[in-house]
Amino acid sequence: MTSLKRQTILIILLLCTFMAGYAASLRISVRTSRGDKICVGDRFTVIVTAENVNGTVPHLNIGGATNDSFVESQQVENINGNVRSVTTYRMMCRATTPGTYTIGPINVGGVRSNIFKYTIHPGNGQSTSSGTGQGNSAAVNNTSKPTYIGKGNGNLFMRASVSKTTAYEQEALVYTVKMYTSYSAIKFVGATASPKFDGFVVEESKQTDTQLRYETYQGKVYATAVIARYIIFPQMTGNLKVTGNTYTVSVDEREYYNDQFFGQMAVSRPLKLTVSPNDLNVNVKALPSPKPADFSGGVGKFSISSSMPSTS
């Protein structure tokens, strides 16, 4: 092989190495929590990765979905004089309409992307991106568990309890509603209706817990707070029912994802929940007969106390 041919081959190899180090690419992909399947209500992330591309990715029309948030990140590397720039655009979306859709192609700085095709299937998807929430239908059919209405989920729910499930007529009982949440921020809690106490005389207590406490429920740690407390007096015998009321709760929901350069990242967005506690039944027995002469209409000894933990 002549010296000229060897020099020509060397130059070609150097040019190929140089071009490979600075190759531009534009790629569209979709990440879901169900593998490749997306159902109505599911969240999914549209990712556009631009490597060594000079320009800005245009607004994308994500068919059959709403675009809830947008995150842009950039990584620049300089290895032995070879500069590599990667910009990643993430659009967090929620599927709303069944159908088959495409994203792209798009053209940025003369670089053309791929075409990504995806299908949104009918049916109820997940309402949140994390947690182990119970399904709506299961909750509705089982009155011993909290019911989730609208966007309620296992990351926030209410539990109702009563001090005694078997009592005598006119015996003072305490009915309590406690909120359980794994959200990092609670902005608003408000009752949109009152509980229904069939066959009870009711006195509302103002002694609720304004400070969150932590409890483990079914293997998961929640922040809890007593948001309502009532003193109830059964006025008749039999199986009396207390029907839970409805609460509106506003929270900040954090969605986590792994960035290939920056590791785990999160975005927050407001979420409105409508939640009801479980219903309860109280078995009320008749007072022993004959009644004592000094009977005044109340049964048992009743008191309510509250305390605030000391701070150091």
Explained architecture:
By secondary structure, the chain is mostly beta strands. Helices cover 8% and strands 51% of the residues. It is built from two helices and 22 strands. The strands form six sheets. Strands 11, 13, 16, 17 and 18 form a five-stranded antiparallel sheet that branches. Strands 1-3-5-4 form a four-stranded antiparallel sheet, with no helix packed on it. A four-stranded antiparallel sheet has the order 10-21-20-14. The N and C termini lie far apart (84 Å). The model is unreliable at 3-21, 126-151 and 302-307 (pLDDT under 50).
Write the layout of secondary structure elements.
Blueprint lengths: L2 H19 L3 E8 L5 E2 L3 E9 L13 E15 L2 E14 L3 E5 L3 E2 L2 E2 L3 E6 L14 H6 L5 E3 L6 E7 L3 E3 L4 E9 L3 E7 L4 E2 L2 E6 L7 E5 L2 E15 L3 E6 L3 E13 L3 E14 L3 E6 L27
Parallel strand pairs: 2-9, 12-22
Antiparallel strand pairs: 1-3, 3-5, 4-5, 6-9, 7-8, 10-21, 11-13, 13-18, 14-20, 15-19, 16-18, 17-18, 19-22, 20-21
Concise structural overview:
8% of the residues lie in helices and 51% in strands. The chain is mainly beta and 312 residues long. The strands form 6 sheets. Strands 11, 13, 16, 17 and 18 form a 5-stranded antiparallel β-sheet that branches. A 4-stranded antiparallel β-sheet has the order 1-3-5-4, with no helix packed on it. A 4-stranded antiparallel β-sheet has the order 10-21-20-14.
Series of secondary-structure elements, N-terminal to C-terminal:
HEEEEEEEEEHEEEEEEEEEEEEE
Helix content: under 10%
For the termini, the CA-CA separation is: 84 Å
| Molecular shape | elongated
Annotation field: number of helices: 2
How many beta strands in the DSSP annotation?
22
* The CATH C-level class name of the largest domain: Mainly Beta
Number of domains: 2
Structural class: mainly beta
**Rounded to an integer, what's the Rg over CA atoms?**
30 Å
Please name the CATH topology of the largest domain. Answer: Immunoglobulin-like
Stretches where pLDDT is under 50 for at least 5 consecutive residues are 3-21, 126-151, 302-307
Summarize the main sheet: 5 strands, antiparallel
**Arithmetic mean pLDDT:** 75
